[in-house]
Amino acid sequence: MALKAVIFDLDGVIVFTDQFHYQAWKKMADEMNIYFDETINNRLRGVSRMDSLEIILERYNGEPLSQEKKEELAARKNENYRALLKTMTPDDVTDEVRETLAEIRKRGYKISLGSSSKNAKFILERVALPDAFDAISDGNNITKSKPDPEVFLKGAEFLGEKPADCLVVEDAEAGIVAGIAGGMKTAAIGDAVGCGKADYTLETFSDLLKILV
Ligand code: BG6
Ligand code: MG
Fold first, then answer.
1. In contact, 56 and 72? CB cutoff 8 Å
2. Which phi-psi region, left, alpha or beta, contains residue 7 (left: φ > 0; alpha: ψ -120 to 50)?
3. Could you give the residue ranges of the DSSP H alpha helices within 86-212?
4. What per-residue confidence (pLDDT) applies to 130?
5. By C-alpha distance, which of 174, 196, 163, 199 is closest to 52?
6. Which of 36, 94, 184, 208 has the lowest tally of Cβ within 10 angstroms?
7. Mean of the pLDDT values across residues 63-89?
8. Looking at ligand 1, which residue's alpha carbon is closest to its atom 16?
9. Active site amino acids
10. Chain-centre distance of CA 210, in angstroms?
11. Which ligand 1 atom lies nearest to the CA of residue 118?
């Protein structure tokens, strides 16, 4: 087996926007009198904005909500979230991540983003990584969210590589499951390590350099 490309999740792998997602959803949930905590927030990792809303609404006890109202709630959350993203700077990406990405490319691997987020490009610009990837597959080019493999299959396609030659790097169990479903190799970091499903476990981001020799 010779890997040729790497597909990276964004939130929780390259940047740590989890707290911003939490704060933005929490504000919306409080306004709607819906119970929401960090444990529920963990279930939103890798899940699309509308699917995340449905998870939060499991605790909603009011009048039934129309699709239009749900879209309004998701838009409200996204406004809160983007206001928080605007506070991000290049310092929000560690030197370790920057240097590891550059070294992986130097070693001849192609790299793509594989993120469920529709804000991915905005985030990459905020943290000064707009040209760090050979391709970007994100929430704007998919119809099905992780654990469906679509976002990673598109990433492989954009790079012109076969799924079996790609390594997916993920912090969410939904993302590891998606990578496996797509026929890719998987590396778990952070929260995803616990699920025990990935081919590789990363203690720290630069451990990738031990796999991608
Ligand atoms: C993923 C996050 O990267 O993007 C999820 O892990 C989030 O928590 C999803 O819901 C969609 O993000 P956005 O930016 O399109 O609302
Ligand atoms: Mg993630």
1. no
2. beta
3. 95-106, 120-126, 150-159, 173-181, 208-211
4. 84
5. 174
6. 94
7. 97
8. 49
9. 9, 11
10. 23
11. 15
Using alpha carbons, select from 174, 51, 187, 62 the residue that is nearest to residue 118: 51
With a cut of 70, say whether residue 1 has pLDDT above it.
no
Residue after which a domain boundary falls, among 42, 59, 85? 85
Pick from 198, 179, 69: which is nearest to 114 by CA? Answer: 179
Do 97 and 174 reside in the same domain of the chain? yes
27 with 39, same domain: the answer is yes
DSSP label of 15: B
| Binding-site residues, ligand 1, Cβ < 6 A | 10-11, 21, 44-49, 52, 78, 115-119, 139
Domain count, the chain: 2
Same domain, 96 and 138: yes
Atom of ligand 1 at shortest range from CA of 45: 6
Mean of pLDDT over the chain: 96
Tokens 């707290």, residue?
Answer: 19
Cα(119)–Cα(140) distance, rounded to whole angstroms? Answer: 9
28: CATH = 1.10.150.240
Torsion of CA 36, 40, 41, 44, to 10 degrees: -130
| Orientation of helix 150-159 relative to helix 173-181, angle to 10° | 60
Q: What is the pLDDT of residues 156-198, one digit of tens each?
A: 999 999 999 999 999 999 999 999 999 999 999 999 999 999 9
Instruction: Name the region of 2 (left: φ>0; alpha: ψ -120 to 50; beta: rest).
Output: beta
95-145 pLDDT tens trace: 999 999 999 999 999 999 999 999 999 999 999 998 999 999 999 999 999
